[in-house]
Amino acid sequence: MTTSQFDLHIIGGGIIGLTTAVTLQARGVKVALLEANEIGQGASIGNAGHIATEQVFPIADASMLRHIPAMLLNPTGPLRLDWRYLPRLMPWAIKLLLNMRPEPFECIHQALLSLNKNSLQAWQDFATQWQLHEWVQANGSLLTVENPNSIEMLTKHSQRLNDIGVVNELLTKNALQEREPALQDNQLAALFFPDTGHITDLTAVIKQLTYTFRQLGGEVLEHCCVLDASVSDIGIHLTTSQGDMIAKKILLAAGAHSKSLAKQLTGVNVPLDTERGYHLMLPHENKRLLIPVSSMDRRFIMTPMQAGLRLAGTVEYAGLETPANMKRAQMLLQQAQPMLKKTLDASDSMSWMGFRPSTADSLPIIDKVDQVFLNFGHQHLGLTQAVVSARMIASYYFNETHSIDPKPYQLNRFRKLF
């Protein structure tokens, strides 16, 4: 591969990099996609599959603080911290706490709302354009409660979301049973979100997009890890595991692995850390549920897919190097079973762990700095915001007017922190 023939090198072949690659290549940009492992096999292949347009608030808010000690002390709880990692986590965590203050919290909320309210339609249009409709479903999702004390909280959440245009319907216990009969009658109420969706086969979507990208003339280079990057007068020098390259322009879309390259390319130390997420796939349970079901009390999600029922969730802070603790994945079965009438078939189950790239303000970096484009840091919403983010990068690339105000996602918001 001669690097001079390409207009743009994209670093990172996850769902963010791949949707952006297809979007730009289709518009005549000659794109090379560099992936450290295999296309789409990082966080993109193991996420919950939920197009979560209803999640329009930051990942952490002040109301959660009083619950954190109990969650950390609960070995089967939704939050775990590797205490050996705490010194490295602290700078990021302090910024996260500062963003819980009312003013920044509201700004972040509005920015998430702007992205998410456009995300489902963007995915539906993208699915139609690139023959993905078989796997991109828009049948809604549920958020349930089983603690009687949570019903009031759920009701307030419903009203708050409806007030800002995030449409939902508050379901009684009986209405919930009618909509999702497999749920146990300990599920007391739920919100139904009609304007959400889910991916029934992430592998098929990634395979189809990779095929489409190549058919459009794009080049894929797998097992090509970018080790160092620097900007010079002759271009952008990339040191990779497959040799040196000179790129005219690059897009950094390496998810949780973007931090060091972003510093080399822009000089900005992005407050980015990784929330390690787990899933447990039950291959014999693909008919159990009709739509994704999240639990407000248990803080995890069950997503029906063609390959089985995916139980996903938990947050673990332990960095990129610590080996996976697959007991975290197995615990999800203990969370799911009490919510369902019939015993789950866990035979041949498969455990997985991946890295969510989370900024301290819960917002992605979607920006252009000279010849460097940035598209990473989408935390729990990478799949949800992938297509709308790709469209924003296209607007930057072609100097077009943005349909979404780009300022909240620009890199400059972090320059003042250092």
TrEMBL record:
<feature type="domain" description="FAD dependent oxidoreductase">
    <location>
        <begin position="7"/>
        <end position="395"/>
    </location>
</feature>
<dbReference type="InterPro" id="IPR036188">
    <property type="entry name" value="FAD/NAD-bd_sf"/>
</dbReference>
<keyword id="KW-0560">Oxidoreductase</keyword>
<dbReference type="Pfam" id="PF01266">
    <property type="entry name" value="DAO"/>
</dbReference>
<protein>
    <submittedName>
        <fullName>FAD dependent oxidoreductase</fullName>
    </submittedName>
</protein>
<dbReference type="InterPro" id="IPR006076">
    <property type="entry name" value="FAD-dep_OxRdtase"/>
</dbReference>
